[in-house]
Amino acid sequence: RAAQGRTYGNLGNTHYLLGNFRCAVASHEQRLLIAKEFGDRSAERRAYCNLGNAYIFLGEFEVASEHYKRTLQLARQLKDRAVEAQACYSLGNTYTLLQDYERAIDYHLKHLIIAQDLNDRIGEGRACWSLGNAHTALGNHDQAMHFAEKHLEISKETGDRS
Amino acid sequence: MSRVKALQVDSVQRWMEDLRHMTEVE
User: Fold this and answer.
1) How many Å apart are CA A96 and CA A108, to the nearest integer?
2) Hey, are the CB atoms on A89 and B15 less than 8 Å from each other?
3) Contact A30/B at CB under 8 A
4) For A57-81, what is each residue's pLDDT tens digit?
5) How far is CA A95 from CA A2, A64, A83, A134, in A?
6) What is the predicted ipTM?
7) What Rg value do the Cα atoms of chain A yield, rounded?
8) CB-based contact A124:A116 (threshold 8 Å)
9) Which helix (DSSP H) or strand (DSSP E) does residue A161 occupy?
10) Where are the beta strands (DSSP E) in A17-140?
């Protein structure tokens, strides 16, 4: 049964990389079921994240956000800060797709704080870029300028010319 | 901003390009 769980996870990932997102969802749902049977929270966390990603490419952004929220909860329970940051970043982008810019800002700020704590300058730069865009969408031009300047400063430091 | 425009936000586009190749490996 444990091997079945791992195999469903691998199948789900392969379907995803091939662009078969419905099949990816079906496989990752099976993987999730088996992870729950075993009480394997790391595997459960991975399945939720993979499901969220697949739902993004299916255009089902609300469903994706629910899966990313479960990923975030589990990352916190597992005390994995890097995964917690990644889940916040995914949620920020998903709420941007849903045009809920207030929520997007909320999650991008959470991502920014963790990136700063972890000394992840690339993550911090991406958070500033995303925050600048969300504030622009809301017409908060002073805030947008603040984050654009931070993004420029970090991009120069990391040598990101684009 | 329309749904199509939301998809054109450059930081989101970049995230989706990266996401397309990202999987949580067993």
Assistant:
1) 10
2) yes
3) no
4) 999 999 999 999 999 999 999 999 9
5) 35, 10, 18, 10
6) 0.94
7) 17
8) yes
9) none
10) none
